[in-house]
Amino acid sequence: MEILFSKAFRKLLNEKGDDVVSSAVLIAVIKISDKSQLSNSFIDYDTDMDYVIEENRPLLMLLFLKPSKSNSKNVFITIRNWTEEKEMLYQNQIGKDFNVVIESK
After folding, report:
1. Tens-place pLDDT, residues 50-65
2. Per-domain residue ranges for the chain?
3. pTM
């Protein structure tokens, strides 16, 4: 499976901070009723202040574990618009490795 991003967000950087990780393991999927449940600090983290999370729509919070040579527990979280199909898809992929893909614009 792949998880797509529109740019190389800081949360995707490896342990050294010099490149985006190439893969990560999905460890949790959480449904959120809407953006009002997210703090401004979290939204800044998730979007690098360069993406708008839509108002008044259900969301999915996906937690990923990045690879680590030092066995540190390095995670990143990403928000996706919710659909029932997406939620089922991601729930069925918990524990699986995802390729991290930066889309070219």
Report:
1. 888 989 999 999 999 9
2. 2-102
3. 0.90
